[in-house]
Amino acid sequence: MSNLFQPTALVGAIALAMGFSVSAQANTDSSVNASLETLVVTASRSEEKIKDVPARISIIEPKILDQSPIAELPHLLMSDASIDMMQYGGYGQAASIFTRGTNSTHTLVLRDGVRLNTGSAGAASLAFIDTTDIKQIEVLKGPASVLYGTDAIGGVVQLISKTPERTSAFVTGEMGEHNTYKAVIGADVAENGFYAQIRGQRLESDGAQVTNLKDPSIKTGNYDQKGFSTKIGLEKKQYAASIDYSENNGQSQYITDNDTYTGVKNATQDFKNEIINIKGRVNINDDISVHARLSQFKDDLEQNESQDAIYNTTKEAELYSKWQFSPSQNILVGVAHKNIESDVLSGSAPYGVDYLKDVASTGYFIQHQYQSDKLHTQAGIRVEDHETFGTHTVGQVAARYRLLPQTSIYSNIGTAFRAPTNNDLYALNWGGNPDLKPEESVSYEIGLDQIITDQFTFSLSIYRNEVDNLITWQNGKNFNVKEATFTGGELNLNWANNDLFWNLGYAYVQPKDKATNTDLNRRPRQSLTLTTGLQTEVYGISTSLSAKSRPQNSSGVSGYANIDINAFWNINPNIKVFTNIQNIGDVEYKTTSASQWGQDIYYINGGRLASAGVTFRY
């Protein structure tokens, strides 16, 4: 890498930024009540205030996403206590997401409605998803199969992209430890309902140690990534249309566990993901609108030390209509078709996998909403016709009732399902089992939200998710667990007063194999997050704590706590300087075993990453 990005330059940039004082959140209203007015779309496919949703939904706001272009999606998701984010190293390393204790394949990841879960592994490649043009991230907890079909047993994470609101241009650069830097350039045009957007970005990092094996022959996980995105659209009262294209590609170095002597060795892989998303809306009259979407998501991975490769393509077509047939009631009816293709090639030991599978599925769904000052309800049903596993019917009923002006309660019950992935079924040397059954779940939840003062809010949720035919891996093969249960609760406290704020989140989950009454492994029982700081429209500073208890049934893996710091200063409307320190204590913790040969070798987290940057905006 260039000598420009040396530690001396980094220290100078951090000193400059910190010398001006700093923050995590700018140009926002710090009051608690303002956050309750935030609009979300994931829960019902329509904009609604977060305080009216009859389910637990949280957001990672624009002010958080703007803190650091370097921050990758797995790290951002750690700020939600209900999510256990397990990453095997730092940048570009594989990551698994466990929402409310459910499997990593039980969280559906979307970008503007486009499904990012792959047909082979079933989970999204979180480490390779760029967040450069993301406005906010919505995290819906609990089942959502009525609106989204398969995979949404534990919840939905949706990335909402930015739509230009004014004509502008910017360039951002951030550099940090481990020779890490990212540059982003972009321009927006917005006039009379027409908008256009373009982004380009490049990131490089030498990476951090991936395992606890301090062997000079085992290199760090370096990462090289670049991307391009563009969006063009027209937004009018009676109609709207847009086309969104994004491409992200690069190379990551990782550790594989097929060396007889050490259990690990170096390997590199090239990745590429591409999204094409075409959307349209027509308002037939003031009460009826018709929405359509065509999309394609490609996720490719090629190994450089062998001929192994994975090519995933998901094509989707969706049409739905919303009818506001009274001031307080609407009904949404739609149909969605998707085709998922996986092409997996691996002729070398120890895998020996080679398959090409194409699976189609069509879902028909209907949802009713009632909305008044005191009562918000949502009820829906979906019939999914799956090419391999036949017809599945899921449903959901939810309601939120405002007992007092400052007090509301909600309850919901819903069912969901997940079809086994192509790897689950056909990758025989990865444990594939063609006799697997689909996973099916039923979930119950109740919750309370209380505004204690204008500055202080309290929320509590209690839930139980019962999953039949849970797919798990044991002794080299996938099989169905007859029933697993996930029982837990979440507590959130939020306070803001003028320029000061703090947000506390606590989550507890007990994941059980009901047949054996033993805990499912790799899940921590308890999680705690805390963010506190000072913010103004010009400057501020914030600190975030993320802590997890020891994962259940995970030998050698312990709990951890790490702290991040963010700061920024808007020198003027055109120049912003900022600094970030992820894991300021450089806490090292094991995530999971890195060797199949009985060695005491574990994947570890990415360690500390201090960085500083500047944005110039026109």
UniProtKB/TrEMBL annotation:
Its main location: membrane. It is found in: Cell outer membrane. Residues 50-156 form the TonB-dependent receptor plug domain. Keywords: Cell outer membrane, Ion transport, Membrane, Receptor, Signal, TonB box, Transmembrane, Transmembrane beta strand, Transport. Residues 1-26 form the signal peptide. Pfam families: Plug, TonB_dep_Rec_b-barrel. A motif (TonB box) lies at residues 38-44. Residues 222-584 form the TonB-dependent receptor-like beta-barrel domain. It is a multi-pass membrane protein. Belongs to the TonB-dependent receptor family. PANTHER family: COLICIN I RECEPTOR-RELATED (PTHR30069:SF53), TONB-DEPENDENT OUTER MEMBRANE RECEPTOR (PTHR30069). This is TonB-dependent receptor plug domain-containing protein. It comes from Acinetobacter albensis.
